[in-house]
Amino acid sequence: MNRTFFSQISQWSRWLQLALLTALLAPAASSAADHSTLEKDARKVYQNLIAKVPVAKSLAKDAVAVLVFPKIIKAGLVVGGQYGDGVLFRGDKAAGYYNTSGASYGLQAGAQQYGYAMFFMNEQALQTLNTAEGFEVGVGPSIVVVDQGMAKSLTSTTANDDIYAMIFGQTGLMAGIGLQGNKITRRQD
């Protein structure tokens, strides 16, 4: 095989990656949910989460606010991206609307949909959410992703981190899931 053949394959692969990301992420970005629909969806998944997951109910009691992203779309083929809209709840009231987006590069392939909730346990952690540049996950307050093992032992007396995140409703097939590399910004609409 010659270099021209491999060069053409590499170029074709880049175009395929770009097309895949555009096809999967553009509809999510271009059809950002209106506030009432977004709030209704976020409230529904949040209420379902605290009804079915005891640790979520426990964290909700002590949290100063909870940011709920009911649907995140993530896709990638070597280069990946994700996007979703969410609602910040303080008590029972919607206090703001946000979006999350991120990009990644590495050994990855597939598409996935999921949601997550972030429980802000103190005012200082919540204040970082509204910085001018947006809240970058992994920079600033400590965030703990609650998995099934941790959920069994975490209580309101042992919860002493700034933010707890719970991922839920995963569908699709993609190797690995995490929040690293996400940036959360307040929606201006």
Automatic annotation (TrEMBL):
This is Ysc84 actin-binding domain-containing protein. Keywords: Signal. It comes from Candidatus Accumulibacter appositus. InterPro entries: Ysc84_actin-binding (IPR007461). Residues 102-189 form the Ysc84 actin-binding domain. It comes from the Bacteria. Residues 1-32 form the signal peptide.
